[in-house]
Amino acid sequence: MVQPAFKQTTWYKSFILLLLGFTSGLPLALTAGTLQAWMTVENIDLKTIGFFSLVGQAYVFKFLWSPFMDRYTPSFLGRRRGWMLLTQIGLILGIAGMGFLNPNDHLWWLASLAVIVAFCSASQDIVFDAYKTDILKADERGTGAAVSVLGYRIAMLVSGGMALWLADKYIGWQNMYWLMAALMGVGILATLLAQEPETAVKPPRTLYEAVIEPLYEFFSRNNAWLILLLIVLYKMGDAFALSLSTTFLIRGAGFDAGEVGLVNKTLGLAATIVGALLGGLLMRRWSLFKALMVFGILQGGSNIGYWYLAVSEQSIYSMGAVVAFENICGGMGTAAFVALLMTLCHLSFSATQFALLSALSAIGRVYVGPVAGWYVESHGWEAFYIFSIIASVPGLILLLISKNTLIYTQKTGEFLRRTQFIKQYRFALYGLILAVLFFICSLILVITNSLPSLELFQSIDFIQSINIKLLSHWASSLFLYGVIIGAVSLVVGTILDYLALRKTTH
Question: Residue ranges of the Major facilitator superfamily (MFS) profile domain (predicted)?
Answer without folding.
Answer: 13-406
